[in-house]
Amino acid sequence: MKLIYKFFTAAALIVLLQSCKKDFLNRPPLDRVTDGNFYTSENEVLASTAPLYNIVWFDFNDKAALSIGDARAGNMISNDREMYYRFSVAATDLNNLLAAYKSFYKIIAQSNIAIENIKKRAVNVAPEVRNYAIAEARFMRSLAYYYLLMNWGEVPIIYDNRGQMADPDVRRNTKESVWQYIIRDLRFAAAHLTPVAPFQGRITKYSAEGMLARMYLTRSGLEKTVGSRSQSDLDSAKFYANDVIKNSQYRLLPKYADLFLSKNNNSSSNNSESLFALQWMPLTTPWGVNNSFQAYMAFSPDLTGTGDGWGAAHGASSDLIKYYMAHPEDAERRKATVMFNEDVYPELLKSKGGLKYTTTSIANLKKYIIGSPEENGGLGASMAVNINTYMMRLPEVYLIYAEAVLGNSTSTSDAEALNYFNMVRKRAGVPDKTNITFSDILMEKRAETAMEGVYWYELMRWYYFDPAGALDYIAKQDKGSYTITHVAGTENPRQYNVTYTPAFYPASPQTIYLPWPETEILAAPGLKQEPVPFDFSKLSD
What we know:
With about 550 residues, this protein is mainly alpha-helical. It has a domain at about 1-275 and about 510-540: Serine Threonine Protein Phosphatase 5, Tetratricopeptide repeat (Alpha Horseshoe), CATH 1.25.40. The chain has helices spanning about 1-10, 40-50, 60-70, 80-85, 95-120, 125-150, 160-165, 175-190, 205-220, 230-245, 295, 300-305, 320-325, 330-335, 395-405, 415-425, 440-450, 455-465, 465-475, 520-525; strands spanning about 75, 275-280, 315, 345, 355, 390-395, 410, 435, 480-485, 495-500. The strands form five sheets. The protein has a two-stranded antiparallel ribbon. The chain has a two-stranded antiparallel ribbon with strand order 2-6. Strands 4-5 form a two-stranded antiparallel ribbon.
C-alpha cells in the first residue's frame, strides 16, 4: 500500500494536473507534465501515467457516473438526478453532463500528452517500460472514448492536442471510426501490458483483454438487428473473455460484500477480481485525487464521521425494488447494494454497536459506503473516502463470455457459458440455471453491478441491435416513490410490505443519447455538422 501511495501521490503533484480547463478545446500545454529532465528512469515513466488512474476521472466519478450509469438506467432515484431518469437532461447541466464530458476529454488529452512525452523523452528507458506506460495511456484513452460514444454517439477523435483542440471546426467522427479507434488502442494495450502489474492498482494485459471483450460484444450489435449481431465480433468477445478466465490470475472473492470494504483495495491476496479500479487517495490535496462518492451517497453524516453524508434522498428505484421483491434469494447482493428497513450492518457505526437501518421511505445506498476513517484504519477525510472505484470486475467477463456464446440464439445451455454464468450466481447464494437467455444475462449483470455505474451501458448495448425492445423495457421501468417495511418476525428470507406510487418516463431515439453540453457547441460549432469517417492513415502506429 505504501508503494502505490508513493507513486500516485508523487504523480498527483505533477503540474499536469492543473491543465485542461473549461472544455476539451482548451489545449493542455505539452510542457506542463514536467520539465525535460523527467522520464530518465523507469520509476519516473511509471509515475507519469499514475494521474490517469484518478484525477482525470474525478469529474466523472464525483456525481455523473451514477447519474448516467444507474439513475438513467432505472436503478436509482434521487431528488437532484431526476432529469437523468426522466430523459430530460438539460444541455446547460454543469454538475453531471458537462462534468462527465470534460472528464472524458481530459482523460484523452492527458493520455495524448503522456504518449508524446514518453516517446520523445524516455529514450534511455527500457523499451518494455516505455511501451507499458504508453499502453496504460492508450487503455485509458480507449475507455474515455467508449463512454463518449455510448453517451453522445458520434464524437471527435482527438489524437493531436496541438493540431485539433484549438480548432472550432473540429468534426465528429462516425461510430464505426470511433469503435475502430477504441479497439486499436486496446489491442496495443493488450500486447504491451504485462500479465502481472508492476505495482498494485496498475492494469495488466488481462485488464485490456477484459475491456476488449466488452468492446467487441457491444460493437457486435452496431447497426444490426435482433438475431444478426456480428459473429466475428461475438467470437472476438468470447476469445478475449476466455483468455482472461482461463489464463489470468483473477478469481472471484468468496463473499460479495467484501468487495466493498476498504481493506480490499488492490490487495492481490484480498481482492483478486478487480481488473481495473480507479485509484483514490484518502486525502484532498491536491483536489481531485479523492473519492467523493460517500460524501454524496451516505444517507447521514453519522455514517461518515467527517461532516459529509448528504445522500438521504438517493436510493434504489421502485423498479430495482421490484426486482429484489421478485428475487428474495438474491438477498446477499441486495443487502450489500442498498439498505432495507431493519437491515443491520455491524461494520458501520461500530462505536454504537453497529447500524440498524430504520428508514421506510427509500432504500438508501450501501455499496461503497464504508463509514468513518476510524472504521477504516484511520484513512479518509471529508469528501475523501478510502475506497477505490471498480471499472471492471471479473464477473462482467464471465457474463460477457456467456452472452458471446449465446450470440444470436434465443437461449443456450452451453456447458461453459452456464458454468461461468452460474459461478456469478453461486457466489451470491443464488440457485443455478440450466438454460439462459439474453434477458437472464441482462438481469444478472444488473443484480451483480447495481450502483456501480454499469447498467446504462448494458441497456445501450441492447439498444444497438434492438432499439424497440430496449425502449420498451425502459418505458416500463417504475421510477416512482415507495415505502418499504420489514415484516416483523420474518427471516431467511425476509419479507417486506411495499407500497408503490408508480411513475414512468420513457426514452426515445431523440433522448436516448445525452445532449451536447451547450458550452461545447458554442465553442466548437463544427460539432453540429454531420460526422465523417476518421482517416487512420494520419496515425503513426
